[in-house]
Amino acid sequence: MQRSISILLTFLLFNLSTAQTKFGNPEVDPFQVQKNFTDWSAYQNKNIMLSRDFVALDVLSKEISKESFLDQLANGNFIPIRLKSENSIYYYKLFKIQPNSDTSIKATINQIGFDALKNYKMEGTAFPKFSFKDLNGNEVSNETMKGKIIVIKCWYIHCTPCIKEFPQVNRLVEEYKDRKDILFVSLAEDSPEQLKVFLARKPLSYAVIPDMKIYMNETLDLNAFPTHFIINKEGLIAKVLPNFESLEVALAKESKL
């Protein structure tokens, strides 16, 4: 009995010391949300966007760099939780993964953190030189796109998440159709013949460049698809993004600069 009371007090003290911060309270109970993989995954996918700009907090609610935050997600034993805020700033805080949580949560968080950290480190670097022709024979290169914002989607025909977001990215192209300074290009692994047959059934509004498997794997060092790049007018990588939702947010911001 005494042991049970001691454990309960420890839990309550930990909860009080970590849940409430000067930045706001967690928007969900950090302990309840990690009780099973399904609940945690639903929360993570809907509420946490590691590619966005946010204030990063460690387990003691101390501000840390975004790079340190992502590194701890990639290599530590933490989940990110968003804090409630009355302003438009996003606050993400690290919480310890509990010993009785599904081990898949830690494994998935580590992978998500690894990918997010890798993408973050690419920001501000020059996009590798390229010169290719799209399916219509148009030259697509750093030079032909100089001084413009370039949105690049990396994908392949048999990538289900890549294809699932076609309607969304097509709407994005339509939304920015009057912006002559924004160009949409896609790099695809597949051959011209395969792409022409596939795109006849599932149209993509981006310019499509075929046979990009080696370039994406070796030059861009990609290991996850889809991956989206936003390149600014100076030819530097502004954002590297894992899905349409994060792309939409990042492009809205970049387009106003």
User: Spans with pLDDT under 50 lasting ≥5 residues?
Assistant: 5-14, 16-21
Task: Kindly name the structural category.
Answer: alpha/beta
**Largest sheet, order of strands side by side?**
9-8-7-10-11
Broad shape: globular
Number of DSSP-assigned strands: 11
What is the ordering of alpha helices and beta strands?
Answer: HHEEHEEHEEEHHEHEHEEH
Oligomer kind: single chain
Main sheet properties: 5 strands, mixed
How would you characterize the overall build of this protein?
The protein has 257 residues and is α/β, with parallel strands linked by helices. Helix content is 40%, strand content 19%. The protein has helices spanning 2-19, 37-47, 66-75, 103-122, 160-164, 166-175, 192-201, 213-219, 244-254, and strands at 55-57, 63-64, 78-82, 91-96, 131-133, 139-141, 149-155, 182-188, 207-209, 227-231, 237-241. Strands 9-8-7-10-11 form a 5-stranded mixed β-sheet. It is globular and about 55 Å long.
Structural features:
40% helix, 11 strands, 257 residues, four-stranded mixed beta sheet, alpha/beta, five-stranded mixed beta sheet, 9 helices
Secondary-structure topology with pairs:
Blueprint: H1 2-19, H2 37-47, E1 55-57, E2 63-64, H3 66-75, E3 78-82, E4 91-96, H4 103-122, E5 131-133, E6 139-141, E7 149-155, H5 160-164, H6 166-175, E8 182-188, H7 192-201, E9 207-209, H8 213-219, E10 227-231, E11 237-241, H9 244-254
Parallel strand pairs: 1-4, 7-8, 8-9
Antiparallel strand pairs: 1-2, 3-4, 5-6, 7-10, 10-11
Helix pairs in contact: 3-4
